[in-house]
Write a structure and sequence with these properties.
The chain has helices at about 15-25, 40-45, 80-95, 95-110, 120-130, 135-140, 155-170, 185-210, 275-285, and strands at about 5, 10, 55-60, 75-80, 175, 220-225, 225-230, 240, 245-250, 260, 260-265, 270, 275, 295, 305. The protein is of the alpha/beta class. It starts with a strand and ends in a 12-residue tail after the last strand.
Amino acid sequence: MDKLSVVRNVTSPEGDHDRARYFLHTGYPFVEAFPRPSLGAVMSNQSPISDLPNYVSIGAGQGFGPAFLGLENGPFAIENPKELRALLQTLESRRKRIQLTRNLSEHFSQNHQAAADPEARLAVLSKIERLIETDFSKALDIESDKEKKRYGDDPFGQRALLARRLLESGVPFVEVAQGGWDTHTQNASTTSRLCKQLDQLFAALMEDLSSGGLLDETVVVWIGEFGRTPQINSTAGRDHFPTVVPIVIGGAGFAKGEIVGSTNKDGTAIEGDSYSVPDLFATLFSRIGIKPGHEFETQFGSMTTATDSGKVISELI
């Protein structure tokens, strides 16, 4: 924790799981007619083109998409790294077949002008070819990592280990997900179990990033979609509490060992200044070289900013 800071005065209006997850991934409230890109998609868009995926999401299903930034900035979703590595190794052994598929695809496109998106089909084949030439498959081999036990013998720990290996291989943005925090019943026992997993892997991850020098250039953020009520309910659980969204953040020049903001004595309200979710995004963007007011052009030709009028949380800088 000497390398991390805790923010206690970020608040959100979203108390529904889906809407809150969307808000904390994009920095914008959900509007069906105007989807927004996730933080990972923005990072991917602003990173140099690479043969590696620019945005990897581990254990989060399909993750949150790129919206108007295009499919090339969508998440490379990983659920089972062992299966994915086996697939890539199979493709590596069958490269001649990939080349044959490419040749047949080009021939088909030349003779069938109405074929659906032949350029996109060829682009996918090219991306697969380039990916199997990188160290991406090697990074997926967490089974042989000598530090495996330090991260914990459970899926979340192994996801964090994979995240570190992907960062070391050159992937610029990695998201790791862990569910189960919706403790409407039996909060104490559930949270105790989850924290035992989290403490071990978080300590190992921070130690490895720091000792390897990556922490100086890597932003680390631990966050949920909202906080949980200070009061214990009738089933020994805690309910949704967007009034306070606790955040742990560090790396890449952020302040170390700081507590930003506070709540009142019983934790039911923020005391003093508060920050919004767009403020959090403005702060994150500022550390990765993206101006909060940076403008993107949508597929409709209109301009929109990276954040929803967010301002930097100055205490963290």
